[in-house]
Amino acid sequence: MKRKKSVVLLIEDELFIRELYQNRLQKSGFSVLVASDGMEGFNLASKNPDIILLDIMLPKMNGMEVLAKLKENSQTSGIPIVMLTNLGQESIIKEAFKKGCLGYIMKMRVTPSELSQRVEEFLANPTQKMDVAKIDLD
């Protein structure tokens, strides 16, 4: 019996990066929903993806606002959310974990293939928060 494809919601405003990650994730066997701004991403989360990859710098609603609203909503609060951004300031990372993200990935330090591997790891351990000490800070 074929197992169900995991659904990834990718919320990323930069077209090139969004398409690059979407293509890589699909090649790795994921079904990918995409959103180009925070409001669209928040609305797409109602489709109950298995994991959300969330940029911080987004139009209409920034990633921190999306994260907070998703964690406040009983229908979406259980979805694992991984921040996927280039913002590496310690205060921002700590705020994201405080608001409920599962992990924090720096775009500039991960290849699309590595991203697919990381998504697999997060899906295998959906309640285990990433160790903040393992994040390379700016």
From TrEMBL:
Xref: Gene3D superfamilies: 3.40.50.2300
UniProt modified residues of type 4-aspartylphosphate: D55
Cross-referenced InterPro entries: Bact_response_regulator, CheY-like_superfamily, Sig_transdc_resp-reg_receiver
Keyword Phosphoprotein (UniProt): yes
UniProt keyword annotations, A-Z: Phosphoprotein
Every Response regulatory domain range: 7-122
Superkingdom of the organism of origin: Bacteria
PANTHER family: RESPONSE REGULATORY DOMAIN-CONTAINING PROTEIN, STRESS RESPONSE REGULATOR PROTEIN 1
Protein name as it appears in the record: Response regulatory domain-containing protein
